[in-house]
Design brief:
98 residues; 60s Ribosomal Protein L30, Chain: A; globular; single chain; 44% helix; 4-stranded mixed β-sheet; alpha+beta
Length: 98
């Protein structure tokens, strides 16, 4: 898999994404999420819960190669981001790349 950091940032800047586990799960349940991205180095139960819910909803899930602080930096935030849901990719081609 290629590095999707640039696509994540572009989706955050130009599209619609929600950050955090609770918001990601809510987007899955509302059937608005098109893609879920989780930090691979995260709390084990947390990632498994999001993955399970995404699988049930038949939504693609991608593991970001890094921890939640790394994912936060890619999103342009100064805090950790365990997961994010892409609602609208904006100018990003992230849905085609994964």
């Amino acid at each position: 898999m290629t590095d999707i950091s640039g696509s994540i940032r572009l989706a955050v800047d130009s599209g619609e994404v929600v950050l955090g586990v609770r918001s990601s799960v809510a987007a899955i349940r509302d059937n608005t999420a098109k893609l879920i991205i989780v930090a691979s180095q995260n709390k084990k139960g947390l990632v498994e819960d999001v993955e399970h819910i995404a699988k049930l909803a038949d939504i693609k899930i991608v593991k970001f190669d890094g921890n939640s602080m790394d994912l936060g930096v890619v999103c342009g935030k100064q805090h950790s981001v365990s997961s994010l849901a892409v609602i609208s990719p904006g100018n990003s081609k992230i849905l085609e790349e994964v």
